[in-house]
Amino acid sequence: MDPIVPEGCLAAARGWPGRPIDTARLRLRRLVPDDAEAVTRLLDDWDVARNTSNIPFPYDRQTADEFIAKVESESAIGRAVVFAVEDRLERQLLGCVGSSIEDGRAEIGYWFGRAAWGRGYASEALARCLRLLFDNFSIDAAWASVLPENKASRRVLDKAGFVFEQSRRIDLPARGVAADLDFVVLARADWEKARRRRPILLVAAAALVDVDGRVLLAQRPPGKSMAGQWEFPGGKLQTGETPEVALVRELREELGIDVSESCLAPLAFASHDYDSFHLLMPLYACRQWQGAPRPREGQRLAWVMPARLTDYPMPPADLPLVAQLRDWL
């Protein structure tokens, strides 16, 4: 009997078609030849290369070109999934994360330039890569190897749910030596169990529309998650609050304006997976309020015409709401 070929939505959920994938702070996209210069700059650093088993040092442009070509060829036949990881705001290459896939198991690998260390980027990128592999490639397990002295990388793997399996002595061609490596594994059942434990965060947001048809956006201040990104004002629901009550409170606290619940018109909602939590966010439209909006929590404000909303980098959960808001306006 011929195998059943997935069609429609089911087919779309298989593999990776190559479209960029956004996380809270990062964009995971294809590695392309134009990345060779940045790859060379980031990897021609002994402090980066010494903690890896396959990255040579010194690292030159030809090696970068060969690496990108290899990734492209192995990705084309479904043997690898490798992402270039860049900052969503600056659009600068930070590193790479990905895997090779064989017999239902995925070998995980990643590296990041020195400037990206200590900021949680590796954990954020790895979590999204794992979700793609388990969901879209239906792998049974993911595994990785790490030098015991590479404590930072081991913490990233521990946070992702990997557990120690064994230590083995392995030849490291790029180093010209052999070394004991720790092998860690993440089984599908354990990944799914952790996924079921992630919290659901309820947030209410408002599209404040002035008499000129402009929409108010607020920029997340330094020190907050997703700092620098623009969003619709609002905030988390407290215990016992309805979305409307929470939004009235948040708009008063954040912007110093008074809004009546009757002035909030339900418009759309976002349901977005941030890997560490799932966000549910109803968006309300509002044209009437008392007082002039002022930033009271260190944020910046901008009144934006609907056609220009996409010029402002937003959290992934807010982006789908823009088109719905435009249609409503």
The major pleated sheet works out as: 8 strands, mixed
The string of secondary-structure elements, in order, is: HEEHHHEEEHEHEEHEEEEHEEEH
Count of strand segments: 15
Query: Termini distance?
Result: 53 Å
Poorly predicted runs of 5 or more residues: 1-5
How much of the residues is beta strand, in percent? 25-35%
Shape: elongated
* Count of discrete alpha- or pi-helical segments spanning 4 or more residues: 9
Helix fraction?
25-40%
In spatial order, strands of the major sheet run 1-2-3-4-5-6-8-7
Rounded mean pLDDT score: 92
Query: Rg from C-alpha positions?
Result: 23 Å
Structural class by SSE content: alpha+beta
Brief overview:
Helix content is 28%, strand content 31%.
Describe the protein's architecture and organization:
By secondary structure, this protein is α+β, with helices and mostly antiparallel strands. The protein is built from nine helices and 15 strands. It has an eight-stranded mixed beta sheet with strand order 1-2-3-4-5-6-8-7, sandwiched between helices. The chain has a four-stranded mixed beta sheet with strand order 12-9-14-13, sandwiched between helices. A three-stranded antiparallel beta sheet has the order 11-10-15, with no helix packed on it. A hairpin with a 4-residue loop joins β7 and β8 (177-187). α2 crosses α4 (61-76). The longest helix is centred in the N-terminal third of the chain and has 16 residues, at 61-76. It is elongated. The model is unreliable at 1-5 (pLDDT under 50).
